[in-house]
Amino acid sequence: GENVEQHPSTLSVQEGDSAVIKCTYSDSASNYFPWYKQELGKGPQLIIDIRSNVGEKKDQRIAVTLNKTAKHFSLHITETQPEDSAVYFCIMTSYDKVIFGPGTSLSVIP
Amino acid sequence: EPEVTQTPSHQVTQMGQEVILRCVPISNHLYFYWYRQILGQKVEFLVSFYNNEISEKSEIFDDQFSVERPDGSNFTLKIRSTKLEDSAMYFCASRGFWYEAFFGQGTRLTVV
Fold first, then answer.
1. Residue B102: its chain A contacts at CB < 8 A?
2. How far apart, in whole angstroms, are the C-alpha atoms of residue B93 and residue B30?
3. For residue A37, what are the contacts with CB-CB under 8 A and spacing of at least 6?
4. Mutation to test the B interface, candidates A96, A97, A99, A105, most B Cβ within 10 Å
């Protein structure tokens, strides 16, 4: 069946350092690759997404890179700040399925 | 900015009671979803709904669960006879023609 994996499951970085989270998916038909951020007590919120015709997308300190051949995409956060501390989910989306990865808990240490 | 709203934000219920969790998706969206997240665990898919019927459901979504879109705006999740292990955050999401899914803030269900 469909599967989504994320690595690492937890990540601690010093404020100002970069953080990278990798997502591997199984459905080769997927063509939309989003990352969601979930802060404590809140619902997941979209922070960046990429479509299969693009290899990289950047929005200020956040970027997503896609390797469709290898079926993985990564979230890159530069110059991390304490407010980046949260759980990050990649999602595999196709036609009517929206399947969450297991999540990565990011802690940014001031 | 359009948003998905869920009510109530927190519901406490006695084991064996029925609960209805309510969601107002973004208008003109086509796909609707329910997920649950047990504290500290991953977000689990429950059910997807399209064209006024269930399009897919997980093994968690057994006969105790049902969904409805009674009036074209609300999207409800009913649990007929709650169990202690139903305690979780329940998230509703909706999606339009494109793939971006919008999530509500969740309902925290506590079964005592």
1. 46
2. 11
3. A44, A45, A47, A86, A87, A88, A89
4. A96
Distance, in Å, from the CA atom of A46 to the CA atom of A18, rounded to the nearest integer, reads 20
Half-sphere exposure of B110 (CA within 13 A, CB side): 5
Q: In this complex, do A49 and B93 lie within 8 Å of one another by their Cβ atoms?
A: no
Each residue of A43-93: pLDDT tens digit?
Answer: 888 899 998 777 999 999 999 999 988 989 999 999 999 999 999 999 887
Average pLDDT, chain A: 90
CB contact under 8 A, B43 and A89: yes
**Mean pLDDT, rounded, for B67-96:** 93
Percentage of chain A beyond pLDDT 70 is 95
Lowest mean pLDDT among B21-30, B49-58, B59-68, B95-104: B95-104
At a CB cut-off of 8 Å and minimum separation 6, what does B37 contact? Answer: B43, B44, B88, B89, B90, B91, B106
Residue reference for tokens 């998905």: B4
Contacts of B104 (CB under 8 A, 6+ apart): A43, B3, B4, B5, B6, B23, B91, B92, B93
Amino acid at A71: K
| Distance from C-alpha of A103 to C-alpha of B39, rounded to nearest angstrom | 13
Distance between CA atoms of B109 and A1, rounded to whole angstroms?
29
Q: For residues B43 and B33, give the distance between their C-alpha atoms in angstroms, rounded to a whole number.
A: 12
| Whole-number Cα distances in Å, B6 to A53, B24, B25, B26 | 34, 6, 9, 11
* Residue A3 CA from chain centroid, whole number: 15
